Amino acid sequence: MPIILRLDRVLADRKMSQTDLAEKIDIAPMNLSRIKTGKIKAIRFSTLDGLCRELRCQPGDILEYLTEEQVKELGF
Predict the structure, then answer these.
(1) More confident call, 52 vs 5
(2) pTM of the entire structure?
């Protein structure tokens, strides 16, 4: 998939744990883990809203578009 999630980077920048974030946006820690690792095919706008609200960021800070060539180069 050419859209990847950079949630791990934003969490590290904010010094926030995955568990704390899951609790704050009221989703199961396992679901947040799946988002963080990119093992999802879609994300609800309400979840994206919660992530951006709690991490004080923009969607573009979490989501990144890669071309097919970049995906191959990075081995995704």
Answers:
(1) 52
(2) 0.83
